[in-house]
Amino acid sequence: MSLNIQYGAGLCGPAHWKNYDSSPMLRLQRTPLLNLLPMARNGAPYPKTVIFGDVVVGLPVANGTADLVYCSHTLEHLSLEDCRIALRKTWQMLKPGGVFRAVLPDIHIICQEYLQEADKSPEAAHRFIRNTHMGLETTPRGLQRIRMMFSRDAHLWMWDYPAMSSELTTAGFVSVRRAYFGDSLHKDFAEVESLGRWQGALGFEAQKPIA
Asked: Does 152 fall in a domain?
């Protein structure tokens, strides 16, 4: 049976995958007594098949053992430095010939949309910032500040395909290609992919060299 790893799993936890997420809310919901707090009880419940794990710190996965690795809308929530660490650790987890597949927002598409609207609408700049998730509409105060500590909604670094392809190659991956929803030859990816997260987004697939 293949070993399939998903990190940044969120609420997606298929049984045939080992699913990890580093959300503070997940840790809160899994901590006795703290899980009784209204904040924990009101948050979307994580499936039991999703466990706490941070790819940047290191997942409990032995090097060279994973057949497939997947993440969806995760890498953009990491700083540039941490994203590079995540790519290297993903490479280390994979078996020779193993495949890494991911999807994330495409800054190229977001910029194109902004440029098409910029001369037509005074709201274009606001929509651009909202779509990048790199700004704040209001300053968090009181309970909002506490809620922000348990949220990872902000995007810390945005990507287009040329930039991501270059980083993957630097991390040691080969056969890097732009990917689209449902186009992988590895059918297990269908268990973790959803169309909505791939629409208007940047997908890629890459391989660890066989030798």
From this structure: no
